[in-house]
Design brief:
The complex is a heterodimer of chains A (137) and B (190). With 137 residues, chain A is mostly helical. Chain A is 76% helix and 0% strand. Classes of the chains: A mainly alpha (137), B mainly alpha (190).
Chain lengths: 137, 190
C-alpha cells in the first residue's frame, strides 16, 4: 500500500470513528436519520433483522456441514466412553471380542473364573475398543 | 441491549451468551446498529446490511470472541469497524498495483473484475472529494476533523492548529460530527 493510499484509508477510518462517537451520543431522531438515509424506519429494521437472520442461518448451515463432513470422514469413529458402560455392556463387548479372537481365550477364562475385577474388565474393554478403532482406520 | 453478565471464563463470554445477546436486539438496537453499519461501510462496496450480516456471522460463529467486561454493543461496533477497514484496505491496495499494469499496457490485464477495481478506487476518491467539499466553508471544522479525528492529535494541538481557544473545542467537534452525520444520512457522503 502506498503512502497516499495509507493516508486515504486513515482519513476514512477517522471519519468512521467520528461517526461512531456521534452515534454514542445521538438522540433517537438523529440515529434514525443516519440509519434510514431517507428511507422508512420499519424497512431499515426489517432489512437489518433479515441480515442477522441470514447470518444465523448461514452459520447453522456451516456447522451442520462440518458435522456431516466429520461423520463422512474415515478418521471419525465415535468411541463409547468405557466409564459410562454398564457391566452387562462390558461383558457383551468382551464376549464378542473373544468369539472372534482365539488368542483371547485365556482372558475369557480368567473372567469366567471371576479372576478379573470390574476395573480390569473396563481396562480390557477400553483396549478392545481402541483396537477396533485402529483396525477401522 | 444485553450487556452480557453471564461470564463463561475469565477471558471471554461463551457462545450461548453471544447468541442470547444477538437474539435480544430490539428494533431500536437494530436501528442504532444499522447507523453504525452505515458508518462502517463508508468508502466500500458493501451495503450496511452486508456489514451487519458479516458482523453477525463472525459473532455467531465464534470467530470474534466477546471479551468479558466489554459491553456487547462496543464489541459489535469494533467488529463492524474492522470489516469496513479491512475492506477499504483490500480495495485500495489491490487495485493500485493491477491498475498500474493496466495503465502501462492495456493488453497486460485481461482478467475479470477490472470494473470492480476501478469502481473501488473511484468510490474512495468520491468520498474524499465529498469530505473536502463538505468543509469548503468551514476551515476550522476541516482542521479539527483532520487533526483530531484522523491524526489523533491532542486537543491542545488541534485547537492550536485550528486557531481556536480550548474552550471552543467541544462545540467545534460537535459541529463537525453533526455535519458528517447529516452528510452521510442524506447520502451526500457514501
Amino acid at each position: 500500500m502506498s503512502r497516499n493510499d495509507e493516508t486515504r484509508r486513515q482519513g476514512i477510518d477517522g471519519l468512521v470513528e467520528a461517526l461512531m462517537q456521534y452515534i454514542d451520543e445521538a438522540n433517537p431522531a438523529e440515529i434514525e436519520e443516519l440509519a434510514s438515509r431517507g428511507g422508512e424506519r420499519t424497512a431499515v429494521v426489517s432489512a437489518a433483522r433479515a441480515a442477522v437472520a441470514r447470518a444465523r442461518s448461514e452459520v447453522a448451515q456451516r456447522r451442520r456441514e462440518r458435522v456431516r463432513e466429520r461423520m463422512r470422514s474415515a478418521s471419525f469413529k465415535p468411541t463409547p466412553d468405557v466409564s459410562q458402560l454398564s457391566l452387562a455392556e462390558l461383558k457383551a463387548i468382551l464376549a464378542e471380542h473373544v468369539a472372534n479372537d482365539d488368542a483371547s481365550r485365556t482372558m475369557a477364562a480368567r473372567h469366567e473364573k471371576g479372576e478379573m475385577d470390574e476395573a480390569e474388565l473396563r481396562s480390557v474393554v477400553a483396549d478392545i475398543l481402541r483396537l477396533r478403532q485402529n483396525q477401522d482406520e | 441491549m444485553n450487556t452480557g453478565s453471564g461470564a463463561a471464563s475469565a477471558a471471554h463470554h461463551d457462545q450461548d451468551d453471544v447468541d442470547d445477546a444477538v437474539g435480544a436486539w430490539s428494533d431500536d438496537d437494530y436501528l442504532r446498529l444499522t447507523a453504525r453499519a452505515v458508518a462502517a461501510a463508508l468508502g466500500t462496496d458493501l451495503s450496511p446490511e452486508d456489514v451487519l450480516n458479516e458482523a453477525a456471522s463472525l459473532l455467531l460463529s465464534g470467530k470474534r470472541p466477546w471479551k468479558v467486561g466489554v459491553p456487547f454493543e462496543a464489541h459489535v461496533t469494533m467488529v463492524m469497524k474492522q470489516i469496513g477497514s479491512n475492506r477499504r484496505r483490500a480495495m485500495v491496495s489491490r487495485p493500485t498495483k493491477e491498475l498500474e499494469v493496466f495503465d502501462n499496457d492495456p493488453d497486460a490485464y485481461r482478467g475479470p473484475g477490472i470494473d470492480d477495481m476501478v469502481g473501488s478506487r473511484l468510490r474512495v476518491e468520491r468520498l474524499e472529494k465529498g469530505l473536502s467539499q463538505l468543509f469548503d466553508d468551514d476551515p476550522v471544522g476541516w482542521v479539527i476533523f483532520e487533526a483530531r479525528l484522523v491524526e489523533q492529535m491532542s486537543v491542545e494541538d488541534a485547537c492550536d492548529l485550528a486557531g481556536i481557544p480550548r474552550k471552543d473545542y467541544e462545540t467545534a467537534l460537535k459541529r463537525v460530527t453533526r455535519k458528517l452525520a447529516k452528510a452521510v444520512g442524506s447520502g451526500a457522503l457514501r
